[in-house]
Amino acid sequence: MLRSLKKMFKSNYLFTLGVIICLAWIIAAILAPVIAPYDPVVQDLTARLQAPSAQHWFGTDNFGRDIFSRVIYGGRYSLLAGCLTVVIAGAIGTFYGAVAGYVGGQVDNVMMRLSEMILSFPSLILAMIINAVMGSNLFNTMFALVIVAWPTYARLMRSVVLSVKENEYVTASEALGASKIRILMKEVIPNSITSVLIMATTDIGNQILMFSTLSFLGLGSAPPTPEWGMMVSDGVDYFNKFWVAGFPGLAIFTMAVGANFIGDGLRDLLDPKLRKQF
């Protein structure tokens, strides 16, 4: 696997680019207090709406706050929301779908009808409703995203488990008297998880976009939190000042594209039909 991964770094330039982009944002978010030249929330009305310059690389917003500093700090919130949402939703959906697929019968029918009921709502609208009811803050926004996201993982996991549970090693474990929970945890889930991991990697970019969209609509973190979507929203009234919304929007774009490049590369690496290329 390590040899294949190393070979893919050399041959799949988009995967390599995705890794570089995502690592750059992660490192920048971790080292934000060191990299950012200004406090991201301190206002300076004498310097409001200044164009990019040597003093303010990305210019300043309508309150005179340094946009470069706010973009760097904003990565902490957007990356945290995107990654944590995927981890929690993926874990819930994986176990839920595995149980439904392995047990089957009426249990499967009832469990999947519940997930399909959630999927029947437009994801953004449902997330907006949940967030509006619970109140707008970082935790509630991530909770809404998890509620919207987990059924997709459940459906994927169930479809894979339906195939995996017919394999001989699962039948052998059942014949030896292993409990259903042991078979599920030791045999079924480990041999079904690859597709979920690929989807999760790609979904990080989608969840960052969804989180930024909710923040853009005023349903994310509360001001003056330096969050990318909220910064784009602040720049709507200043279209002639491209830097106010442009640089936060570029941050969202690059992170989403980088995550998708990594997801595509992992799919090529882990998919048995494509693995022979590496």
Automatic annotation (TrEMBL):
<dbReference type="GO" id="GO:0055085">
    <property type="term" value="P:transmembrane transport"/>
</dbReference>
<feature type="transmembrane region" description="Helical">
    <location>
        <begin position="12"/>
        <end position="36"/>
    </location>
</feature>
<dbReference type="InterPro" id="IPR050366">
    <property type="entry name" value="BP-dependent_transpt_permease"/>
</dbReference>
<feature type="transmembrane region" description="Helical">
    <location>
        <begin position="242"/>
        <end position="263"/>
    </location>
</feature>
<dbReference type="Pfam" id="PF00528">
    <property type="entry name" value="BPD_transp_1"/>
</dbReference>
<dbReference type="InterPro" id="IPR025966">
    <property type="entry name" value="OppC_N"/>
</dbReference>
<keyword id="KW-1003">Cell membrane</keyword>
<keyword id="KW-0812">Transmembrane</keyword>
<feature type="domain" description="ABC transmembrane type-1">
    <location>
        <begin position="75"/>
        <end position="263"/>
    </location>
</feature>
<comment type="similarity">
    <text>Belongs to the binding-protein-dependent transport system permease family.</text>
</comment>
<feature type="transmembrane region" description="Helical">
    <location>
        <begin position="79"/>
        <end position="102"/>
    </location>
</feature>
<keyword id="KW-0813">Transport</keyword>
<dbReference type="InterPro" id="IPR000515">
    <property type="entry name" value="MetI-like"/>
</dbReference>
<dbReference type="InterPro" id="IPR035906">
    <property type="entry name" value="MetI-like_sf"/>
</dbReference>
<keyword id="KW-1133">Transmembrane helix</keyword>
<feature type="transmembrane region" description="Helical">
    <location>
        <begin position="114"/>
        <end position="132"/>
    </location>
</feature>
<feature type="transmembrane region" description="Helical">
    <location>
        <begin position="138"/>
        <end position="156"/>
    </location>
</feature>
<dbReference type="GO" id="GO:0005886">
    <property type="term" value="C:plasma membrane"/>
</dbReference>
<keyword id="KW-0472">Membrane</keyword>
<dbReference type="Pfam" id="PF12911">
    <property type="entry name" value="OppC_N"/>
</dbReference>
<protein>
    <submittedName>
        <fullName>Peptide/nickel transport system permease protein</fullName>
    </submittedName>
</protein>
